[in-house]
Amino acid sequence: MRDFSFSVFPNENFLDLRIYQYGYEQCEPLHSFGPFVRNHYLFHYIISGRGTLDATGEDGVTTRRYELHAGQGFLICPGLINTYFADETHPWKYVWVEFDGLHASEFLRYAGLTAAQPIYQADSDEQSQEVRDRMLYIADHSDASTLHLIGYLYLFMDALIRTSSTRLSAQGSQIKDFYIQEAVNYIEQNYQRDLTVEEVADACRLNRSYFSKLFKDNMGCPPQEFLIGVRLAKAAEMMCNGNAPISEIAVRCGYSNQFHFSRAFKKRYGEPPQKWRAQNRKHSRT
Fold first, then answer.
1. How many CB atoms sit inside 10 A of residue 221's CB?
2. pLDDT given for residue 139 in this prediction
3. Total-model pTM
4. I want to staple 96 with a disulfide (CB 3.0 to 4.6 A). Which of 16, 27, 44, 58 is the partner?
């Protein structure tokens, strides 16, 4: 296997879970990255060697240092400052995948991985190798179809959840899961109009305050933030697959004000809608 590989995923047309970039690297001693803020989730699995992660907690202020070794992994959450660097005498080699999607935070929560607990540790070496192998497969198959790679991203996520020593127990969660799924379905069916958190809570027959806490605890973000994510993901899909004007897409995705839409889209995707569309229509493939 080579010492370095880097690939960018070419297609935006996946909403629930999608890849942004992936690769692996044998780092030089003390090689560092950061301080940096990511727009999406980024997971590293350490193949060999050692290194250090300085991670900012959910409050955006508190920083905690983690000394890591082969067989472990670490999660970097969007919007938080992180720095990581290789050991001076035994620098790490790692494989990574950057991903996001409407259900990304939910899947990570099932694995017990959050900004407050970003370290992956398997129950056994054999189990951790399954996560490593899923990630290396993605990194080594950049020429595969997008559907093929998305399928392996789901297999990676499944392995991550099943093998994580911090995974959540399924016992007692069925009722909460039912309410969350009801809310997600309602949002995905009604995102086009002026939808409020109160309306979603009412549809689930829950008090707004309790619903908002339940949703954030289970999905990793407030319901309003999830709604914005759905709207912008739908807008990105429309821009990739059709020729409708940006102003029309904004209205169809629940934004009566195109300026508000453009500002939200740039914050999420890093580019204004028109520029993002030109870049992604040019490079997208199936």
1. 16
2. 92
3. 0.64
4. 44
